[in-house]
Every structure is written in structure tokens, then in C-alpha cells.
Amino acid sequence: MKATIDWTGDASFKATSGSGHSVQLDGPPDHGGKDQGPRPMEMVLMGLGGCSSFDVMSILQKSRQDVTDCRCELDAERADAVPSVFTKIHLHFIVTGRDLKENLVKRAVALSAEKYCSASIMLEKGGVDITHDYEIREAE
Q1: Where is this region: Disordered (predicted)?
Q2: Rounded Cα–Cα distance for residues 104 and 110 (Å)
Q3: Are residues 51 and 8 in the same domain?
């Protein structure tokens, strides 16, 4: 896996993945940025949510669950001192569908957390306290 980061002026950078997709990163105005893109640490948090959500949906689809929506809300805390690393992250999944089986949703979230989500496991090994929970909503 590869990526490139190109400076585009001030505190702004263009991040390009090995597959050719780009994201504009930027800093806040008080650090020379123009607030025109996510911060790098926000991208780490979004990457974690995306990785785990991908796993949860894949597992639920293989379990033949009729999922109509899946949302992952992340809440993170960072250290006060530099480096301002993540210390705690909580992932809250809101899974919506028709006649979803709670044991299968619970299993999908647990498997992502414990076995499949590379981002989550990597961050935990780095000392981040990561927790997960879920709620199930019936589709209208």
C-alpha cells in the first residue's frame, strides 16, 4: 500500500492513495490553514470508522441481514500534551434494517473490533482505549 502527500501551500496538503484517490488536508486558521479540508488526525479517526464499518457491513451481508443503513459515530479523546495522540475512541454503530437479529449485529461489531479491523487493532496496540457499542433500528 502506498500514498503520497503533496504540499499545496500554507498548511494544506493533497493526500493521494495508491489507488489514485485524493483528499485535501488542511489545518485550522490559527495554524496557517484555511480550513478547507480535514486535519490529518481527523483522517485517522475517519479511517478507523471506515475500516470498522466496512467489516460490520460485510459480516452482516454475509449473514443475510436486511440492512438498509449503517452509521458509525466516533467520539475520541486526545492527550493534552504533545504529541497529542488519541487516548480513547468510542465507536457507536447505528444499524437500521428489517428484522435484524441482535446476536448477528453484536457478533459483527465484535468480530470487527477483535479480529478484522486493522486500524482498530493497530491503534489499540499503540495504547488507545477503543470501545464499541451498537443500536438497532427497524427500517420504516
Answers
A1: 1-39
A2: 10
A3: no
The strand pair at 129-138 and 86-98 is best described as parallel
Domain housing 75: 40-138
CATH number of the domain to which 92 belongs: 3.30.300.20
Question: What pLDDT tens digit does each residue of the chain (140 aa) get?
Answer: 999 999 999 999 999 999 999 999 999 999 999 999 999 999 999 999 999 999 999 999 999 999 999 999 999 999 999 999 999 999 999 999 999 999 999 999 999 999 999 999 999 999 999 999 999 999 99
Element (H, E) at 140: none
- Split into its structural domains, the chain has a count of 2
Determine the 3-state secondary structure of 108 from DSSP: helix
d(CA 33, CA 18): 25
